[in-house]
Amino acid sequence: MPSSLNLTLLLALATFAAQAADPSEGLFDLEDLRVKITESLPFLELGVGKDRILLMRHQDPDHRIESPYDQTARDCPPYCVQPMHLAPGVETIGELELIDYLRRAAAGEPVLVIDSRTPVWTARGMIPGAVEIPYNRLDPATSDPSDVAELLELELGVARVDGLWSFETAKTLVLYCNGAWCGQSPTNIRALLNYGYPADKLKWYRGGIQAWEQLGLTTVRPSARDPDPPSGH
């Protein structure tokens, strides 16, 4: 059993915007973790220096899912259940696959984990290592074509060759939003497919933040955001 000091440190690491302690400093013994991600993966360390975060599961056995992700009833439309398979060739993944993509992105591979939600939602907490690309930035109905082109080239790794899009160097994208009832990441994925993005370079974490919270996994708040976002589900 972990000491009270170790348990306090572990709980602090699993809260929003927690700064992870350096395991090499010996502040706590990672073997004390009671709730690991898998038997062989107790945590995943992301970032460096002051930006270092331990992605881990909450260690408090009394921890419960917090609002608004504890809510099960939402009006449909618009909050309708999404299919398991969103589009041909687009892989639906779970938490362990997403964590592996986070590891690969941190190692410098051409992988980008995308939070497709709008700021009112991301302010509540994001998956560590994800970047914010709200669904309406890629929606042709709400975005300027030049802004979409800039996003594709500068952030997603798409190249323009002889006036045409080339996806040879495009990043593998892992997209998520609020959960199986959320249409924001599906909207992003469908828009990307319409632009010609290869389906095999698109991964969808259908469970989203609701499933992530259900497992007690670490989330972080965008540093520039108000920690008390507007209410609303």
Short description:
The chain has 233 residues and is α/β, with parallel strands linked by helices. The chain is 25% helix and 13% strand. 32% of the residues are buried.
Characterise this structure.
Helix content is 25%, strand content 13%. With 233 residues, it is α/β, with parallel strands linked by helices. It has two domains: 4-55, no CATH class; 91-214, Oxidized Rhodanese, domain 1 (3-Layer(aba) Sandwich), CATH 3.40.250.10. The strands form three sheets. The protein has a five-stranded parallel sheet, with helices on both faces. Strands 1-2 form a two-stranded antiparallel ribbon. A two-stranded antiparallel sheet has the order 6-7.
What number is the mean pLDDT? 84
* Order of adjacent strands in the largest pleated sheet: 3-9-8-4-5
**What's the number of helices?**
7
Q: Supply the helix-strand structural class.
A: alpha/beta
Architecture (CATH level 2) name of the largest domain: 3-Layer(aba) Sandwich
Any idea what the shape is? globular
Low confidence ranges: 1-28, 224-233
Number of spatially distinct domains? 2
Ends apart, CA distance between termini: 39 Å
Strand tally: 9
Share of residues in strands: 5-15%
The run of helices and strands is HEEEHEHEHHEEEHEH
Taking the sheet with the most strands, its summary is: 5 strands, parallel
What's the oligomerization state? single chain
Radius of gyration: 18 Å
Assign a percent range to the helix content.
Answer: 10-25%
- CATH class descriptor name of the largest domain: Alpha Beta
CATH topology of the largest domain: Oxidized Rhodanese, domain 1
Please name the fourth-level CATH homologous superfamily of the largest domain. Answer: Rhodanese-like domain
